[in-house]
Design goal:
The chain has 11 helices and 7 strands. The chain is of the alpha/beta class and about 240 residues long. Pfam families: VWA_3.
Length: about 240
């Protein structure tokens, strides 16, 4: 039984580390089960954007009027994304916001340096929400960037044009360039928007992502803490095993 318990504890620690990696930044050493669980639910760029997979990417951010309630959170996590993932994983990147019109950080993909990342983060702080949702224009502009490998489209709704028109145009663009479009929905209750974003990601071999809300994270944390912060488990794990 003791051997079994030790094996279960080892598996649980791996789950905690995996949650920490997915929902925040790199796995960090912790001295107790409780602090380890708390760290797992700190806000990080992966919670909203997922993991950046390609080396040359463009981030498309919806700044239409309906994004007003989400924009401050998006700006905060976009800054985290630039510093946590783009700076470490990507060779080059660009940022593009869209509403009625387009606003790009640079005219093309830019080499990922510390200086470029600082400049990009400063650009993010000036984003404002207004106007409609010109997703098609944003996608067409992004596809024009040389050497692009992946797009990450973050929005809270459908485009201001026909969804089928956008999907057909993206299919046409991909005949010339094999670019994956990963989609992120901030309004998972809008079924039509979710269906559109799922199709867009599927058609381009990308991923669809709907981030977990703060309320849900809190409930998960509570449930896991109830099971893990128990003296039979917490006191048994040694500092050496956890670290």
């Amino acid at each position: 039984m003791e051997v079994y318990i030790r094996c279960v504890e080892k598996v649980l620690r791996r789950y905690v580390q995996r949650l920490q990696w997915l929902l925040s930044g790199p796995v960090l050493c912790r001295r107790t089960w409780y602090s380890m669980m708390t760290a797992a639910f700190q806000t990080g760029s992966r919670r909203l954007f997922g993991t950046i997979l390609e080396n040359r990417v463009c981030i498309l951010v919806d700044t239409s009027g309906s994004m007003g309630p989400y924009l401050q959170q998006v700006k905060t996590e976009l800054v985290l994304l630039i510093w946590e993932q783009l700076r470490k994983r990507c060779d080059s990147f660009n940022l593009l916001s869209f509403s009625e019109g387009l606003q790009s950080w640079q005219d093309t993909l830019v080499e990922t340096t510390d200086a470029a990342c600082h400049e990009a983060m400063q650009w993010v702080t000036h984003l404002q929400a207004q106007g409609s949702t010109s997703i098609l224009q944003a996608l067409m502009k992004a596809f024009s960037f040389h050497d692009l490998e992946g797009l990450y489209l973050l929005t809270d709704g459908k485009p201001d044009t026909s969804c089928s028109l956008v999907l057909n145009e993206v299919q046409r663009l991909r005949e010339k360039r094999d670019v994956k479009v990963h989609t992120i929905s901030l309004n998972c209750s809008d079924r039509a928007a979710v269906e559109f974003l799922r199709k867009l990601a599927s058609f381009t071999s990308g991923r669809y992502h709907c981030p977990v809300g703060e309320d849900t994270l809190s409930k998960i944390h509570s449930l896991l803490s109830k099971d893990f912060i128990d003296e039979k488990v917490g006191c048994r794990a040694t500092e050496r095993e956890i670290c």
